[in-house]
User: What shape does this take?
Amino acid sequence: MNENLPSDNSGSGVHYASTQLAMISSHVGPLPSPEVLLRYEQAVPGIAERIIRMAEKEQQRRIDADQNSHDLEMQKQKNSVDNYKRGLIASLFFILLMFSFLFFCAYRGLNDVLIAGVSSQAVVAIACVIINFTSPKRVSISSLTKGFDSPQK
Assistant: This one.
């Protein structure tokens, strides 16, 4: 039998029991709970307004940081697309230049130069295919342009 509980010494077998009730409360957020904020305001008049203003400024700072991060990511993607397009244009220009040179050699009857040119183009084409298919990160145009459809602010 528990010594802290009163007992009935009359022999009737009635025992008393006690129940303890504990309440735990917690609050999560940028501001204290309303009850705590009210106590702060009672202790220091005007402090609740300052605390709320501080929380609003912090929230705006986070929004701005997220927006800046998003803007930088979009700029990186746009630059990546631009670089890809420049590379395609430069490759097309180089191919057209090589074919022009080869046609000129064929027209002039420079068969040795023509054979060397075609051979070198074949080697370059094979090297490009190997580099393209063995690169660790292959990027498609559709993945690079994702997100550009949404209106900009």
Summary: Helices lie at 34-43, 47-108, 111-134, 141-144. The chain has a mean pLDDT of 77. Residues 74 and 91 are 26 Å apart (CA to CA). The chain has one domain: 34-144.
